[in-house]
Write a structure and sequence with these properties.
With 289 residues, the protein is mainly alpha-helical. It has helices at residues 2-49, 70-78, 81-112, 116-127, 137-147, 153-176, 181-189, 194-205, 207-223, 226-231, 240-245, 255-275, 277-285. 75% of the residues lie in helices and 0% in strands. It comes from Microbacterium aoyamense.
């Protein structure tokens, strides 16, 4: 009897060992990913907390032996951090709002109309992202000078809106494709217009994807530097990326202050992503199950 039961026991033991190896391998991969993703952020914090005399010690200290908040105090007292945060927040929110409104119209058209011209326009929209932004600096600057948008946050809002729109449109299109067209037809039978179907039916059903696209547009505008440097002149209109760049001098750079300011200015998008991460994951997975 014991001989008959031996093979199943060996099989079960083999399965347990395989399951254990798979679990350990998974945790190792997760740990490596966390080190890769959070390592730079942790090193920024270490450098911001290091006293000036310990910054160039070798080997470098992974845990500050004498941590201090002096870098944060110096940045807060000597730099207009709140002004940079306000300008960046207003610019990013306005850019994200414009992006989501116009991207929703374009994405709904590309999702519901399958004519040849619509498909060509859709691929042409995506193809605009293949052109480097630096190639368009002179044409955009010339156009913005002619309409009086240089030196104004409104110009930066429009520039970020223009460059976020194609990707946001394709993101929303893939999400709208998962919304059954039967919902549109039912709403049309009840007397709803096309715009009514979009704003009353499709957008609420695809809310996770809409939130994910909005977060993408917001973070993209928050991190942008090239067009901010091109369009904004007055220091009173500087955004976060320009504020960070102002720390770099010709002969020296206060790295602890740079790291402290970077941590402060990175908090809003991080908090926004953490607050809406479940919608972000759901949106990338599709609007409906």
């Amino acid at each position: 009897m014991s001989e008959l039961l031996a093979p199943p026991r060996r099989v079960n033991r083999t399965r347990q060992l395989r399951s254990l190896r798979n679990g350990v391998g998974t945790w190792i991969l997760v740990a490596l990913f966390l080190i890769f993703a959070l390592g730079p952020l942790y090193w920024m914090l270490v450098q911001a907390l290091q006293p000036p005399g310990f910054r160039y010690t070798y080997p470098p200290e992974l845990f500050p032996s004498q941590p201090t908040l002096q870098s944060f105090v110096t940045v807060w007292e000597t730099r207009p951090i709140l002004l940079w945060l306000r300008n960046t927040l207003v610019m990013a929110l306005c850019s994200a709002a414009l992006t989501i409104v116009f991207a929703a119209w374009g994405a709904y058209a590309m999702s519901r109309w399958t004519r040849r011209g619509v498909g060509i326009a859709a691929y042409f929209t995506l193809a605009t992202q293949m052109m480097p932004a630096i190639v368009l600096m002179i044409p955009i600057f010339t156009a913005f000078v002619n309409v009086g948008l240089v030196g104004d946050l409104r110009g930066l809002v429009i520039a970020n809106f223009i460059f976020s729109l194609p990707v946001a449109t394709w993101m929303l299109k893939s999400i709208f494709d998962t919304v059954p067209e039967s919902l549109d037809e039912a709403a049309r039978v009840d007397g709803c217009t096309r715009l009514g179907v979009l704003f009353r039916i499709v957008l609420p059903v695809a809310a996770p994807g809409v939130i994910a696209t909005t977060v993408f547009a917001f973070i993209s505008a928050w991190n942008e530097y090239l067009f901010a440097r091109l369009i904004i002149n007055a220091s009173g209109d500087w955004v976060a990326s320009m504020g960070i760049a102002s720390f770099f001098g010709e002969f020296s750079t206060p790295w602890p202050e740079v790291m402290a300011a970077s941590i402060i200015l990175a908090l809003p998008p991080v908090v926004l992503f953490l607050a809406f991460q479940r919608y972000f994951v759901a949106g990338l997975g599709g609007a409906t199950k």
